[in-house]
Design a protein that fits this description.
CATH topology: TIM Barrel
CATH architecture: Alpha-Beta Barrel
GO cellular component, one term: cytosol
Organism: Zunongwangia mangrovi
Number of helices: 10
Shape: globular
Number of strands: 14
Number of domains: 1
Keywords: Oxidoreductase
GO molecular function: FMN binding; oxidoreductase activity, acting on the CH-CH group of donors, NAD or NADP as acceptor
CATH class: Alpha Beta
Bound molecules: flavin mononucleotide
Family: Belongs to the NADH:flavin oxidoreductase/NADH oxidase family.
Distance between the termini: 22 Å
Strand content: 15-25%
Length: 366
């Protein structure tokens, strides 16, 4: 029997992956220390247990104080955080793994509780009417402050600085978080961006910040190590809604990304049923594969069978698994040996402590 495609190797623009199983970025909120720094006996241990993945993408890591919108998430803008992430990358590399960091700014999904009472920043003053996970639990989001041009430029600098710090911390690359209703995604959609300056109004203007972020990051690391994430048909979750220009905006973005020699573009299939939504595309991998010439990672709702199938059909190169990776550190070995997967426990996704974090079995490993 020929090898399943998920378990075949792949050249990620110079980085050799032993298989095509990617660990999707997942916030786990275990950095409950004063500096929000990763620790050897928490994050380092957690990621090292998953080092057999073809590629690990870390949890979203804030690039500045302004970027924070969730409690206890490990950042990438203070020296203690860089030192903490060094322990993570060292341990993953010791186990022969590869790890990118996800660079994150949540924009209007944040809450004044994270900013000494100040409003969070966003492209426009439009409340997502969602919930923010604050130190006191979930709270309703507020109407954010429309960013000035100076604040936009500073944010681009913060992304660049985050990438520079990531290189210092030993990461194999970075993933720009331009997905899931967070800051960069808020710029793309006309329902969250009603600016009338150079960052709004037209498709090109709404997409502009992403390309400025990529160009800034390219100054501190090779573009072959830069990836980014997009969720074009996100409609509902994280306060995001679509309109008739949403998909044309993503089509423009993906087409323009062909001008770069990036590590990858990481796409999500719709998080909700969008079959009744005239503005949405229901099959993201199928729609974007012909548009993008580089490496495509696809995510959301995949199991082993569907993962092998999407590669076989030629609609993606790599498959990212989220929740299955929470409860199956040995996901690759389970796919190899056909071992049943362990269920994940949602109650321990975001709580402090090792329970539901470091205690899932690795049965398929020996
Ligand atoms: C606990 C949890 C935390 C997540 N945190 C992030 C994150 O920090 N960044 C991100 O881009 N996506 C995040 N996601 C979304 C996942 O990367 C993924 O898109 C989603 O779980 C769907 O994939 P799955 O069906 O394989 O779980 C998170 C998902 C979960 C379950």
């Amino acid at each position: 029997m020929s090898k399943q495609l998920l378990l075949t190797d792949y050249n990620l623009n110079g980085l050799k992956l032993p298989n095509r199983v990617v660990m999707a970025p997942m916030t786990r909120s275990r950095a409950d220390n004063a500096e929000n720094a990763p620790r050897e006996d928490f994050e380092a241990e957690y990621y090292a247990l998953r080092a057999s993945a073809g590629l690990i993408i870390s949890e979203g890591s804030p690039i500045s104080d302004e970027a924070i919108g969730y409690v206890n998430v490990p950042g990438i803008y203070k020296s203690a955080q860089i030192e903490g992430w060094k322990k993570v990358t060292e341990k993953v590399h010791e186990k022969n793994g590869r790890i990118f960091i996800q660079l994150w700014h949540v924009g209007r999904m944040s809450h004044p509780d994270f900013h000494k009472g100040e409003k969070p920043l966003a492209p426009s003053a439009i409340n997502p009417n969602a919930q923010s996970y604050t130190p006191e639990g979930f709270k309703d989001t507020v109407t954010p402050k429309e960013m000035t041009i100076a604040e936009i430029k500073q944010t681009i600098e913060d992304f660049k600085n985050g990438a520079k710090n990531a290189m210092e911390a030993g990461f194999d690359g970075v993933e720009i978080h331009s997905s899931n209703g967070y800051l960069l995604h808020q710029f793309f959609n006309g329902t969250s961006n009603t600016r009338t300056d150079e960052y709004g109004g037209t498709i090109e203007n709404r997409a502009k910040i992403l390309f400025e972020v990529i160009d800034a990051i390219k100054q501190v690391m090779p573009e072959q190590k830069i990836g980014l994430r997009l969720n074009p048909s996100l409609d509902g979750p994280f306060g995001m809604t679509m309109d008739k220009e949403t998909i044309p905006t993503f089509d423009y973005i993906v087409n323009k990304l062909n001008e770069y020699d990036l590590a990858y573009v990481h796409l999500s299939e719709p998080f909700t049923d969008v079959s009744d939504n005239d503005f949405a595309v229901s099959e993201i991998a199928k729609h974007y594969r012909p548009l993008y010439k580089g490496t495509l990672i696809i995510n959301a709702g995949f199991d082993q069978e569907k993962g092998n199938k999407v590669i076989e059909e030629g609609n993606a190169d790599l498959v990212a698994y989220g929740k299955p990776y929470i409860s199956n550190p040995d996901l690759v070995e389970r796919f190899e040996k056909g071992v049943d997967l362990t269920d994940w426990d949602e109650d321990t996704f975001y709580v402090p402590g090792k329970k539901g974090y470091l205690d899932y079995p690795v049965n398929a490993r020996d």
